[in-house]
Amino acid sequence: MQYLLGVASSEAGPKYLAVREALRRRASALPEHTLLPPEPALCAEYGVSRITLRRAVDGLVADGHLVREQGRGTYVSRPGIRHEYRESFVHRIAGFQQVMTEQGAQVGTTVLSQQIVPAAPAIATELELPVAEDVVELVRLRSVDGLPNHVVRSFLPAARYPKAATEDFGHGSLYEFLRREYAEDLAHARIVVDVGTAAAEEADRLQIVAGSPLLVVRTTVHDSSGHPLVHSFSRLRPDVSQVEFEVSVGGR
């Protein structure tokens, strides 16, 4: 994962990022192997220097959205599977299954564990419950187009959601289950991204080497009154995953 720590100049900062995002959206709407216009034409179109354009293109090449061929130009490519967590204040809270299915991917789910357990202190804090209060713990292995993507552990208050202990979560979305069975209002999600390493059993499930780095995404979903409904943490293969945040401000 890369972090933008500073901006050397106005051109290397906002312009570069804005052009990269514009090109990313453009590439995603074009067929694979489509040839982009030459550099001078793109510089004129976006109103930037060649240095700024190349920085934007370099990032998209590194991410797999574009590919350069010496003497031929820059072509649209397709990156590895993207795992997207999205939060939009004016649209919805959409889970992994829904987002990836809308992108045309085949999502698979294997339920590894589904049981009622006492809430550990960290989980109790997230769900605003007493320590050791009963919670439903749901552990799932998620795959995309047949390849393992991540393991997700979700926790829900057992007294509030008793059906979660017996529901078949081999198909469908946990968020949609809460809307359908309990008419819950999923209004806000707090998302924290961290890094970790894969333990032996986890690495075997994800088909990676033990000790490999993982992206760790912790999500707590609240209703419109601020009450926590569900807390999850997903451990993702970074080679096939990208965490994306979408934020809308002021209803725009």
Automatic annotation (TrEMBL):
UniProt record, GO biological process: negative regulation of DNA-templated transcription
Q: Which GO terms describe its molecular function?
A: DNA binding; DNA-binding transcription factor activity
Keyword Flavoprotein recorded:
no
Specify the HTH gntR-type domain's residue ranges.
13-79
Q: Which InterPro entries match?
A: Bact_HTH_transcr_reg, Chorismate_lyase_/UTRA_dom_sf, Tscrpt_reg_HTH_GntR, UTRA, WH-like_DNA-bd_sf, WH_DNA-bd_sf
* Keywords assigned: DNA-binding, Transcription, Transcription regulation
Q: What is this protein called?
A: GntR family transcriptional regulator
Q: Does the keyword DNA-binding apply?
A: yes
